[in-house]
């Protein structure tokens, strides 16, 4: 009867639609009913049910013919375990119409009984064989006591087994550690295999408790300098042991002045100096906002109003060179004070950094600060830019920074030797991806960068740039460590003989005010005079302490502003930018006499002082007279934007000096005075990044070969580092020198 029905069913299926429609409806319904009854009978066997196959496909389920082979294969696949089979079935299908084997062509699902006592098993797994290995399945447990697999088209061998694992040995999460005196470190036992199901207990012992003690839970306490070995032993198997060699080092020195006191003095000085915040106050604003000053303070509304007026006055165009950090910098600052950088007087600041090709023209600085900007708040992203040569994105910026890593770890604006400032800034930008799933390559690069910073740290606990220890270098490393959740007080990698970064940074603080760039008597690396109060050093020193304090208080990082509620900023009131009429750049004076103490300095009231590297371009630059400025490596590049160089057309440029005496000078690597007339200068920095030599303009006199090298390289480097145009800047400077040499010959 079944054979006859199948023949009739096939005949019906071979009819055309019109012919099928002509068949009596009662016959058609009966046909469908019988098909369903047959399908129900042949799609379920031994508690296993398949759905999704045609009505004529019969399910076959039988126990595996060689379960011993299955157990052997499972033991090899899961070493250290003793597999116990609960299910070991083979699944196949036939076409009842022909009796031939059938291979499912569409997606089918499978249901099978949950083994009795399954939930009390030690380490159960549901598997399918996959060539020479096994694939673990995660079926849904149904209320009717079955497992449900929604994708079983190719499933032919189903296994349910328990995998109790006996302990074969142990190891520790660290084989050796360096720990500072008085600190604690927790050691953890790693069982072998890690899937062990056997219960066991561990005892701990120290080879020298006068150097390092260990608790019953594996917590090591460093007592005094020296070395000891910590041994973990399995109580049930005394032959199973693991050891960790402990080196106890001198811990971080106690601070002579508290972080809170230094922050209080510095913030009071910043508020007293910057009474009418405007363009150039950016890093003061960010530091104070993230340092806890109420965002309801008039200080912040004043800055925003001036900035909104400035942006509207410039019609959103904040740079005519490659210094696109002008936008990134303001994104960070405005967000810190609760303003949405996507609507500042109607301007979306991200629009201007949505073309990666433009951002990259500034070298590493552009991508570093663009990545910090887009990650500073969870609501931010780069808008689509159809006209961009290269659409900007987080992924593109991360890849660019990874590709810029130096051999051996770390980053630099130029050359093959890692630079502490640039490495610190890069780590700040990459911090959101540290130990994040899917970004293992970023984590590895960060760890290499940290290793390089540990190697580069001076015995004083600080860091150097161009052979001279600077406050800003230390500040950038502190900010990087805190962004990564690393406490510089407790991480032995960043403590040298008791000296550590925060301790070093505070030695640059001048009581009752801000910070100096380099200490009295120190060498000059192109920044402010030694031992004098410096605006940029004050900015960076303060926000580095803010970053550290936020870490200690368990708050979000300096640039992680997910804790800030942002709102549309709106337009300014049109009353102006708050900038005063600028004055020409003053000629640098000689450095003051060295202060033997090296721990304090004089407030420079005579001239502005640039510091080693500017992160945002134009510094707030405030000494007691309000004068201190930028130089060197600048994130926005304003440090060398017509400030260090002027011609007859721009000697009174608005950028030369701004409100509150914010101004800049060029790099002077030899720390020697030089003469620059008001009408002419050595070089003019063009918008396209090229440099016009003094010889080409017919002006610019240098008194010695030494100064000639120093000045040409200094100006070339200032433009190159600030604007990311290392190649063209230095090349132009060298060409100018060669031409001059030839004429002399």
Automatic annotation (TrEMBL):
Residues 590-600, 627-650 have a biased composition (Low complexity). Residues 609-626 have a biased composition (Gly residues). Residues 651-660 have a biased composition (Basic residues). Residues 166-244 form the BIG2 domain. Residues 559-702 are annotated as: Disordered. Residues 669-682 have a biased composition (Acidic residues). The chain crosses the membrane at residues 709-734. Keywords: Membrane, Transmembrane, Transmembrane helix. InterPro entries: Big_2, Invasin/intimin_cell_adhesion, Terpenoid_cyclase/PrenylTrfase. SMART domains: BID_2. This is BIG2 domain-containing protein. It comes from Blautia wexlerae.
């Amino acid at each position: 009867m079944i054979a006859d029905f199948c023949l009739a069913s096939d005949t019906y299926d071979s009819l055309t639609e019109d012919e099928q429609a002509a068949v009596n409806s009662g016959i058609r319904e009966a046909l469908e009913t019988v098909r369903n009854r047959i399908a129900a009978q042949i799609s379920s066997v031994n508690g296993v049910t398949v759905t999704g196959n045609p009505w004529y496909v019969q399910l076959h389920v039988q126990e595996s013919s060689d379960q011993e082979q299955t157990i052997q294969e499972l033991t090899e696949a899961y070493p250290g375990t003793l597999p116990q089979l609960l299910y070991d079935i083979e699944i196949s299908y036939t076409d009842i119409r022909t009796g031939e084997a059938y291979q499912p062509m569409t997606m089918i699902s499978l249901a099978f009984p949950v083994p009795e006592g399954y939930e009390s098993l030690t380490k159960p797994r549901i598997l399918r064989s996959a060539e020479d290995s096994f694939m673990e399945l995660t079926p849904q447990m149904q209320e009717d006591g079955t497992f449900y697999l929604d994708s079983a088209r190719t499933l032919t061998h189903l296994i349910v087994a328990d995998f109790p694992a006996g302990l074969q040995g142990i190891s520790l999460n660290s084989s050796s550690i360096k720990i500072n005196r008085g600190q604690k470190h927790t050691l953890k036992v790693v069982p072998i295999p890690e899937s062990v199901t056997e219960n066991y207990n561990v005892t701990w012992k120290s080879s020298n408790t006068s150097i390092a003690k260990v608790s019953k839970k594996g917590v090591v306490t460093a007592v005094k300098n020296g070395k000891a070995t910590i041994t973990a032993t399995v109580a049930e198997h005394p032959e199973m042991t693991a050891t960790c060699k402990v080196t106890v080092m001198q811990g971080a020195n106690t601070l002579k002045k508290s972080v809170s006191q230094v922050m209080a003095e510095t913030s009071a000085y910043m508020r007293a100096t910057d009474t009418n915040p405007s363009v150039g106050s950016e890093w003061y604003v960010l530091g104070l906002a993230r340092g806890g000053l109420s965002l309801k303070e008039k200080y912040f509304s004043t800055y925003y109003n001036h900035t909104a007026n400035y942006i509207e006055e410039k019609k959103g165009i904040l740079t005519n060179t490659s210094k696109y950090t002008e936008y990134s910098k303001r994104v960070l600052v405005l967000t810190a004070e609760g303003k949405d950088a996507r609507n500042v007087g109607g301007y979306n600041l991200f629009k201007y950094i949505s073309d990666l090709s433009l951002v990259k023209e500034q070298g590493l600085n552009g991508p570093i600060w663009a990545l910090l900007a887009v990650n500073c708040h969870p609501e931010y992203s780069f808008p689509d830019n159809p006209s961009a040569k290269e659409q900007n994105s987080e992924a593109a910026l991360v890849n660019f920074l990874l590709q810029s890593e130096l051999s051996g770890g770390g980053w630099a604006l130029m050359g093959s030797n890692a630079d502490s400032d640039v490495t610190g800034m890069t780590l700040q930008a990459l911090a959101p991806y540290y130990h994040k799933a899917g970004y293992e390559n970023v984590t590895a690069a960060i760890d290499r960068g940290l290793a390089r910073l540990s190697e580069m740290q001076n015995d004083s606990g600080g860091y150097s740039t161009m052979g001279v220890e600077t406050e800003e270098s230390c500040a950038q490393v502190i900010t990087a460590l805190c962004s990564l959740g690393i406490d510089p007080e407790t991480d032995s990698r960043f403590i040298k003989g008791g000296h550590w970064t925060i301790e070093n940074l505070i030695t640059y603080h001048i009581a009752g005010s801000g910070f100096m760039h380099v200490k009295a008597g120190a060498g000059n690396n192109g920044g402010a005079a030694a031992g004098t109060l410096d605006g940029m050093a004050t900015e960076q020193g303060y926000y580095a302490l803010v970053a550290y304090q936020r870490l200690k208080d368990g708050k979000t990082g300096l640039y992680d502003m997910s804790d800030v509620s942002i709102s549309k900023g709106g337009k300014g009131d049109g009353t102006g930018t708050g900038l005063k009429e600028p004055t020409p750049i003053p000629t640098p004076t000689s450095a003051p006499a060295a202060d033997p103490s090296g721990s304090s300095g004089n407030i420079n009231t005579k001239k502005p002082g640039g510091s080693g590297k500017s992160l945002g371009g134009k510094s707030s630059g405030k000494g007691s007279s309000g004068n201190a400025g930028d130089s060197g490596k600048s994130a926005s590049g304003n440090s060398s934007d017509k400030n260090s160089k002027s011609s007859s057309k721009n000697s009174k440029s608005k950028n030369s000096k701004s409100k509150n005496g914010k101004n800049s000078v060029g790099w002077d690597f030899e720390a020697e005075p030089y003469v620059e007339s008001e009408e002419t200068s050595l070089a003019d920095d063009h918008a396209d990044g090229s440099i016009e030599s003094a010889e080409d303009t017919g002006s610019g006199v240098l008194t010695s070969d030494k100064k000639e090298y120093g000045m040409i390289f200094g100006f070339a480097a200032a433009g190159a580092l600030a604007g990311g145009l290392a190649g063209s800047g230095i090349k132009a400077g060298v060409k100018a020198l060669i031409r001059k040499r030839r004429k002399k010959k």
